[in-house]
Sequence to fold (426 residues):
Amino acid sequence: MTNYLTRTWKDPAGRGYMLLAAMSACYGFAYSGQNNIVTNFFNDVLHFSEPQFGYITAVREVGGLFLILLLMLLYRVSLQKLSAAALVVLGIGYALFGLAHSFVTVIPWVLITSFGFHTIFQTQYSLGMSLTTQEKSGHVLGRMASFYQAGTFAALIAVSLIFCFHALSYEKTFIILGVLAVVGGIAIYGFPHLHDGQERKVAPKRERVVWRWDYRYYYALNLLDGVRQQVFFSFGLMVLVRQFKLGVPQVSLVLMLVTLVGVLASPYVGRSIDRLGERRVIQVINVGYVIALGGYALAGHWVVACLFFVIYTFISPFSTIAASTYLRKIAVPEEIAPSISMGVTILHATAVGVPVIAGYILNYVGYQIPFFVACGIAVGTVALTVRLNPKAQRTAARIALDERLASEAAAAGDTPVDEAPAIVET
Fold:
């Protein structure tokens, strides 16, 4: 085992894989642990009203809305350094979360963590896809999701034990989660410069900002996903806590079940994206959303609600993974990272308004209506995916790049780029 790890570390792609895996696990621990307890913190300590749950989600998404502006200023900073800085910022925000004593006083820490979270949210996919060729991108991103889920599982066990035995306060728990986020930042700082799994001496070039008609379907996927995500993200846990009276230990057990499923199944789903294509996978996932969201809205018992919560939460990350691999197939390398940033910004443009509107709806007519609206959005996404065709929708620059690489490979007698073996296989 030691020899295998040593050989893997010496290979640039193998070293990058290990560092990204470590970052994903630490990030999963910090983010999921905080997400696990923050709803109860808002409810039990800060005593939020139902509309305030929507307001704070809108505040939390400001980082995503202005992400493209932030990355325009930092476009010369390498993705690994940007990721490391984002995790340090996230950790500081988490550590200071416990200082809040009201809705107003929690806003600064929510904003700080928002910028950290939304930055790492998009850079992790660009880093993951740099480890291998586009034909194996889904596989690698699925494995990274599995490491993230492993970190999440460890966090949920820790949080469950802490609050079952009243070992630590919310404040001290937030500090521990902040430290883990910083550890993840330290890990990713040494990630090598890669393209298609091959090391480069300098960081790959990135455009400052990208907005192209060629990427319209990628943007549309993010827009629709943003509306759907924000309904569930804002009120999914709140329904379990307020409607069904689940405490931190019970919520932890539900999230542990989600995570265990994710650890086991994420690599398989990632491979399915590579094998079946983004269109089919996104269609299946959104049919799953309709079932999960509709079932969640109609559930009359906490066990049924938890079942649909598990289904939705498990499949949710794969919408972003599939959209990212679709983008990689149609874009030139230097436009992938800024285009993902633009997609994240579009996704979160809905996040400022949707939670506020949904919060009022929830307050006056019941929590079911926003979830039914989210079902309709999922149906619309299925209709949109019919138009996805990565090969036909490549940009002119991408077509020219593919033709040049194919000609160079043929002249050298090498294996074509599209059929190059995966750099990382474990």
